[in-house]
Amino acid sequence: MLMRTDPFRELDRLTQQFLGSTGTWSRPTPMPLDAYRTGEEYVMCFDLPGVDPQAIDIDVERNMLTVKAERRPRHESDGVKWELSERPLGVFSRQVVLSDTLDPDGISADYDAGVLTLRIPVAEKAKPRRIAVNRKDDRKQIQA
Fold first, then answer.
1. Cα separation, 122 vs 60, whole angstroms
2. Radius of gyration of the chain (CA)
3. Does the pLDDT value for residue 61 go beyond 90?
4. Where is each SHSP domain found (predicted)?
5. Residues 2-51: pLDDT tens digits?
6. Lowest-confidence pick of 7-11, 73-77, 94-98
7. CB 72 within 8 A of CB 89
8. Taking the domains of the chain in order of start, what are their residue ranges?
9. How many C-beta neighbours within 10 Å does residue 39 have?
10. Helical residues (DSSP H) of the chain, grouped into ranges
């Protein structure tokens, strides 16, 4: 039901290894994602440790879900001398194409312990339904 839309993810990872986190790479860093179905909904979990919930933006346009988040430095003071900075800062973005069998109007979002969880209900048209089978003799009686 979900399709991966970032074929250059591995290329991004390799480029970041060579350029380092301070390299001039303008493409946003993708965020790790788990997705699974449970009952009548899909659940997507994005790892966003250290991100303020106010810095998370979720948009749906047609069937394209976009999640953007910004991790800002904790100490922006001029008096801070960094000894080590390995945690990436800046804008992170991830796009996922949602199947037509999902209902984007019913998406709910929760953020807890650095994990953004989106719940997307299965659309009514995609839910299994039972179709009654009529006997041919019964149809003739109804038409008469």
1. 16
2. 23
3. yes
4. 24-136
5. 555 555 666 666 666 666 554 444 444 568 899 999 989 999 999 998 89
6. 7-11
7. yes
8. 2-16+33-76+84-143
9. 8
10. 9-19, 136-143
As a whole number of angstroms, the distance between CA 113 and CA 118 comes to: 14
Give CA–CA dist 138/85, Å, rounded: 76
Per-residue pLDDT, averaged over 105-132, amounts to 90
Strand partners, 94: 67
| Distance (Å, whole) CA 45 – CA 47 | 7
CATH architecture, domain 2-16+33-76+84-143? Sandwich (2.60)
pTM over 0.70: no
DSSP letters along 33-51, please?
Answer: EEEEEETTEEEEEEE-TT-
Cβ neighbour number for residue 113 with a 10 Å cutoff: 5
* Token duo for residue 133: 């089978």
Alpha helices in 30-97 (DSSP H): none
> Residue 123: its pLDDT value, please?
86
| DSSP classification of residue 99 | P
Rounded CA separation 42/21 (Å): 33
The vertex-34 CA angle with 48 and 43, nearest 5°, equals 100
pLDDT at residue 126, rounded to an integer: 73
